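USER:
Try writing one entry.

ASSISTANT:
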Amino acid sequence: MDLKDGEFGAGVVEGLTLDAGDRAVVAAIQGGLPLVPRPYAALGAQLGMDEGEVMDRIRRLASRGYIKRLGVVVRHHELGYRANAMVVWDIPDERVAALGPCMGRFEFVTLCYRRPRRLPHWPYNMFCMIHGRDRASVLANVDEIVGCCGLHEIPRAVLFSRRRFKQRGAVYYPGAERAGERRAAAVRG
């Protein structure tokens, strides 16, 4: 199934009420797709639906903006990206709208977002996550952002990770693994 080229909605949820089947599909895909040749058929078997119904529900949810995108969680550490840093910036509020997209355009920036400051202890309002093979490459990436976006005078801190505790996608239906099995049984009757 191909969900690119306009099949995803523009982020606006319109005119669709989630039924039990839709919620079951969302709960099932939040844990990731099965790594099998026909993942939607496997999900359908788990949920008591056929492959086409699962795909149709995902397309409909995507076109209405309930699902923004489908992606993978890459375990970057295992791929050799062992230096991970959250770079925090104190961007003047009137410059955030212009600088955010500039900072986010770099391929090495995996997340870029604004958060409220927590004064007086936390003056930072812009956050960029950068993964690199070593600290030197991450610091070089920070320097590239500074140079290209004109951030020389902007206060910042580079916070390197020390330890990973958890890495996974978002969970919107906690306990879905167990609940998904119960829903599948209920849907099958």
